[in-house]
Predict the structure.
Amino acid sequence: MISRIDLRGAALPEGSALRDLLPRAEFDVEAALEKVRPICEGVRHHGAAAVIDYGEKFDGVRVASLRVPAEELTRALDELDPAVRAALEESIRRARMVHRDQRRTTHTTQVVPGGTVTEKWIPVERVGLYVPGGRSVYPSSVVMNVVPAQEAGVEGIAVSSPPQKEFGGLPHPTILAACALLGVDEVYAAGGAQAIAMFAYGTEGTEGTEGTDGTAGATAAPGCAPVNLVTGPGNIYVAAAKRLLKGRIGIDAEAGPTEIAILADSTADPVHVAADLISQAEHDPMAASVLVTDSEELAEATEAELKTQVAASKHVDDRIVPALAGRQSAIVLVGGLADGLKVVDAYGAEHLEIQTADAASVADRVRNAGAIFVGPWAPVSLGDYCAGSNHVLPTGGCACHSSGLSVQSFLRGVHIVDYTRDALADVAHHVVTLAEAEDLPAHGAAIKARFGWKVPESK
């Protein structure tokens, strides 16, 4: 059901050589670029009509309008299962606690008397938040995207999620209810690359125009104004559209298939380990589930538990078994905990669980992970919903250079430089010298012009 990679016995290689030995899903965003390019161009030139046409083609339903009516948001919240509502409210409450504490404050440094540099944190004006809606429904992703944007102070927040045929072309009602709970009233029934292009180019004033195939377009409705930043996970075509449109819009990351790595020793409970591996495998057949351990006994016990627990699970044939059996999943045997740490750092997992003796100390030694879950009572599924942390995290090894979604994702640090005449005079000769060293005499002249074309002597 799951393969083994035995790295015991010899010294582990370094860097990319070690990464090449580890399991990883194939996720060729570059190849997908040519498939999404005409989609994005279609939206650029035809606006909402193209988004609607592509929704009909890929999602199997033609919507009358991309914008979800306000009364549908209200209805979804009114009809939401009370238990689900209570769980979402608690998820929102905990996420707000954590993300509110992330907000950076303005700080001023006095470089010299009369000379200061202030770093001011300014939220982006408008964001587009993408919530996937393929194999599963993800109201938790609404929470994880909207809460940090709100806590950052973003004024314009739009959410997009694919239209669902069984719900009359609306996004899933639980998605709509989550938006309503969070006070987000700008929601669009659009998915895939076309939704990212809609956010990038906007569809202002285009709903109600002729379709791209010459048919009548949507009914008249307000368009979607372009955004500054797009965040949220999605499939390979969403990732490719983000790459294609990066620069016109800011993006959080090119999210790939979800992944879990578990670093465990002989103290770990194989029942917990197997359950956590399966919890990620049920997302998608390309999901990665990796156990790194120095205990062959744990490896064998986990394999036995996987067989038992998978048989009792849902989504077995279409998701769990293909994910566990795929090249992206494995049990990796290592010679000791130190080697295990090298392996998980080389892997750079989206989610990393530490199930070892003195787990907190081991977790403190990890360098590369999207989020770290410490000990037997902090499984990844806690972080998915109610830990207060964010579950939009770097995948595909990108944790070695990227962070998960946070309040900082929606802020820009702007330096404000404020110098008096005396403060500039004191450093003018250095500025002129460096300008001339770089053969940029006009830079120096901009200083000299302020002092009658004579550089002041330093005091």
